[in-house]
Amino acid sequence: MTKHYDLGQLGYEKEDILLMVHADDAGLSCSENAATMEALEKGIVNSYSIMVPCPWFLDMANFAKHRPQFDCGIHLTLTCEWKHYKFGPVLPYSEVPSLVDNQGFFHAKREMVKNFADPHEVKMELKAQIDRALDAGIKPTHLDSHMYTLGLTKELLSVYRELGREYKLPIFLSDQLLSEVGNPNALEEGDHIINALHMGNFEAMDSIGLYEWYAQILKNLKAGFNIILIHPAFNNLEMKQLCVDHPNFGSLWRQMDFDFFTDPKTASYLKERNIKPITWREIQKISL
User: I need a labelling partner for 49 at 20 to 30 A (CA). Which of 131, 137, 199, 264 fits?
Assistant: First the structure.
């Protein structure tokens, strides 16, 4: 039987509204790194995760090593969804041929991972990513999955669980994300899931704007362990080039994420509703 985390073990009450604001995709680019660092130091973002295979990984690893007060996860990566900006596995692509296209880059779409990825090669590559992060001096607080590819199949989810056990780290499991990637009944007995996940969406960005969307989310948060998942970056030339033909989670979207979660007004929403921050370091104490 799956279950929510027993937050009472951490001293929280049943009616407490707990929030983690988590920034994905650190390491993706210079812009992503700079915005993530600033959002952690000046905003209400209190967790982030790093993409080890990306060119700007070492920049973010250096930050993680010298700012251990912030939650830092490994954003386990099996896809590269960008049109002109490409990267591939940490291992030589000849060792993990099922994970790459004919140019040696990660597949662009989740469906290709689902159809072609060999779970044994997936585990080899992801262990290499975690080990590279450890070698760089990162002390990760958790593992999560880029584009939630590790939720696509029963076999990939098993690899995810195995990595969590082997490295003694909590893994980010969400029934909502499993449903979104087409695998709604994949959870097993012993799995721990968060209460609720919240993200922006392109329809909201294109209509009311993400600022109003996030404000509504904060005003309507319910008791339990909530995560708001964001992707802060600056809408500069680098990110515009990276996000060509990709408005969903694109450059403008990422700037809006940064703007809202570093705005002093946003912190006032948390005070008004007595929303309390929660971290993966706390979750480690009750999940391992």
Answer: 264
DSSP letter assigned to residue 245: T
CA–CA distance, 217 with 202 (Å, rounded to integer) = 15
Q: At what angle do helices 251-262 and 264-273 cross, to 10 degrees?
A: 60
Torsional class of 147: left (φ above 0), alpha (ψ -120 to 50), beta (otherwise)? left
Q: Digits of tens for pLDDT over the chain (288 positions)?
A: 558 999 999 999 999 999 999 999 999 999 999 999 999 999 999 999 999 999 999 999 999 999 999 999 999 999 999 999 999 999 999 999 999 999 999 999 999 999 999 999 999 999 999 999 999 999 999 999 999 999 999 999 999 999 999 999 999 999 999 999 999 989 998 899 999 999 999 899 889 999 999 999 999 999 999 999 999 999 999 999 999 999 889 999 999 999 999 999 999 999 999 999 999 999 999 987
- pTM summary value: 0.97
DSSP lists the bridge partners of residue 21 as 228
